[in-house]
Amino acid sequence: MKCIQCYRSTPYAWVFFLGFALFALISAKPIQANQPPEWVKIGEKKVNKKLDKDEILITGSNDRFTALQFRVTRSEVNITRCVIRFDNGKEKVVKLGQNLEEGQQSKVIKFGLLGPRSVKKVVVWYDTADKADKKAVVEVWGRI
Questions:
Q1: Are 141 and 39 in contact (CB under 8 A)?
Q2: Domain locations in the chain as residue ranges
Q3: What is 39-143's CATH topology?
Q4: How far is CA 52 from the centre of its chain?
C-alpha cells in the first residue's frame, strides 16, 4: 500500500490538473470590456396636447434594467418629471424639466450601484405646445 505523499508526486496528478486548467480556459466566456450597453424599447404613450400624466406599464420577458431614458417622436414635448416604480414597492422620483424635440432623447436616468432593478411601471408628467400639428409619442427605453 502506498502512502498519500507517493500519490501526490505521481505525474498523473499533474496531468489531471493541467487537463482541468485547459478545460477551464477553453470553456470560459471572453470578457468584453468595451461592450456598449443594450437599450430596448419597453413602452410608449401618445401625448395629448395639454399638461398630462400617463402611466406606462412595463411588460415583456425582461423587466430588469440599469437605467431608463425617454425618446420623443412625431412632435416636441416637455417632460417635467417621472416616477419609476420598482417591483419591490420602492420609487425613484426624477425631475427632468427637459423640452425634447422630435428625434431627441432625455438624459439617462441611472439606478445607481444597486445593479439591474425590476421596473413595474413609469409615471410621466409632460406638456406639449399647441402649435404642433401631430401628437408626440413618448417612448421609454431601458438599458439592460
A1: yes
A2: 39-143
A3: Jelly Rolls (2.60.120)
A4: 26
